[in-house]
Specification:
9 helices, binds S-adenosylmethionine, 31% helix, Rossmann fold, alpha/beta, five-stranded mixed beta sheet, 8 strands
């Protein structure tokens, strides 16, 4: 569920880690193909990733980190390094994670907002994101939209969301990724309305501007069969958001 304490993050981590070998089955589903296409378009469509330093918060199996490496990120070192920790705890400075060296050109937080049920934890994550990105640098984050949308309830595009329980300011639910020939991946989620609604409040509060969702109509998979994607276009299950860290003179 959410990660408002280290115990809760430990649960999220354990749940994910146990199922991580099956998580990449997502890539074979329409949902996962779309996510990959929108993600790389947002992160690197304009060549931004060439030689960029990148921090991937809650990187999971490294799906998205590998995509930006292929797009030219970290070309000098050409490698991925992994750190374990709760990304809602202070990451930098004396109490931070040894080995991290901000600021980064690109900071990503994909599907992290959908494990948070506390505004304080959300603020702590945003403080880390803000501290991690250089002025003029980029933030990219995949996040759920309203999980009760038809696209997610029906499973037309692969994964489903279910077990909805509203709480003040957000919603708990679970999500399922079908895996061919193996048990489905099942995750517990919590999304705050300020995250899933499309509000840019947090981005702006933490120093970002030019906040945009990557248009799903531009993805090759959508262009190849717009009829199939109509339900998604009307109410998508996720969006890939990108934003620019304000330059000092813009603040
Ligand atoms: C659905 S997976 C997505 C993984 C990866 N970002 C991707 O897009 O492929 C969610 C990931 O977020 C991680 N996560 C959730 N809350 C976290 C927290 N507070 N600190 C660090 N990682 C967290 C989980 O351990 C898991 O790896």
């Amino acid at each position: 569920m959410a990660s408002s304490s280290s115990t809760e993050f430990a649960q999220v981590k354990k749940e994910y880690d146990e199922q991580a070998p099956s998580y990449n089955a997502l890539l074979k589903l329409p949902f996962g193909v779309l996510e990959s296409q929108l993600f790389i378009s947002a992160a690197a469509g304009d060549g931004f990733c060439k030689n960029a330093s990148v921090l991937d918060l809650g990187g999971g199996t490294g799906l998205r980190a590998r995509q930006v490496l292929e797009a030219g990120a970290a070309r000098e070192s050409g490698r991925l390094r992994w750190f374990h920790g709760d990304v809602s705890r202070p990451l930098f400075g004396e109490q931070g994670v040894v080995g991290l060296c901000p600021p980064y050109d690109l900071v990503m937080a994909n599907w992290i907002f959908d494990h948070i049920d506390s505004p304080d934890v959300l603020k702590a994550l945003w403080r880390n994101i803000a501290a991690a990105v250089r002025p003029g640098g980029r933030f990219v984050g995949v996040r759920a939209c309203d999980p009760r949308c038809e696209a997610m309830k029906t499973g037309k595009y692969g994964p489903t969301c279910q077990d909805f329980v509203e709480f003040s300011g957000g919603i708990y639910y679970s999500s399922t990724i079908p895996v061919s020939g193996a048990p489905s991946v099942h995750l517990e989620n919590a999304s705050l309305e300020v995250s899933y609604s499309g509000s840019t409040e947090m981005h702006e509060r933490y120093g970002f501007c030019d906040v945009k969702s990557e248009p799903c109509e531009n993805a090759e998979i959508v262009k190849s069969d717009p009829g199939f994607w109509q339900l998604w276009i009307e109410r998508p299950g996720f969006v890939v958001v990108k934003a620019q860290k304000r330059l000092n003179r813009q603040q």
